[in-house]
Amino acid sequence: MKQLSDLKGYQIFNHSAVKTCLWLKKSLKDEGVCYKQKFYGIESHRCLQMTPALMCNQFCVHCWRPLELLKEFRGWDDPERIVEESIKAQKRLLSGFYGTEGVNRKKLAEAEKPNQVAISLLGEPTLYPHLSELVECYKRRGFTTFLVTNGTKPEMVEIVEPTQLYISLVAYDEGSHLALNRPQKSYWNRILESLKALGSSKSRTVIRITLIRGINMDEKAAEKFDKLIRVADPDYVEAKAYMFLGYSRLRLNYENMPEHRDVVDFSKMLAKRGYEIVDESDESRVCLLRPL
Question: Which CATH number fits the domain that encloses residue 150?
Fold first, then answer.
């Protein structure tokens, strides 16, 4: 396996990577926690954010990740090896915090023993053919597992069983899919298949809608998103603001980033179609809804 290297805060190993997120760092200093802790009870400082696939089949306008990290394929790693290397990478990334002022040392010690993995860092994780086995490897070590997919691999959505399974949407029909996800070919029918598969998943299921002001936040969009949500029949819906960060700034404008009040207004558009707003996080600009 290729030696781990730290590039822009990423620990890279072959086709996988780990990176500590903003909310882990804030939690270590007792300055706040991720909305996922508020909504779902995971501990931000013990969350390992990773990807098993530094590759993607879409080039979404809102993606802020550095696409130059997407690597030439050199063969798939064994799931157990990925788990081992990801935990080592997390510990390496945390080592510098021992010299950081204001860090909660008890939390830092706990952070070196992560118990939650967010498989959602960069690229599309369902492109890794052993994803289901990877999830089970983390589970056997006592991890809760949150998996985020773009829904383009329905055959993987059908078999993988994380603690929480997300399908992330920014498009609401094939035209917006081609314009916003920018795939080399249309995956819209496959995304619809994944939405159907979500309805029979054994995992807790979530549809995450990334909201871009001026693009997918009007009544027409809310109506079309509602139809997609009904296909998936998820446990929850997250309406979350696009953030004007990283490489997305080359494709979108600052004005495309919604304020939290805009997210609330859109959530109310959904709510009147048969949803309940059960929680929200102003800092993360996200609302949690539950179908009635």
Answer: 3.20.20.70
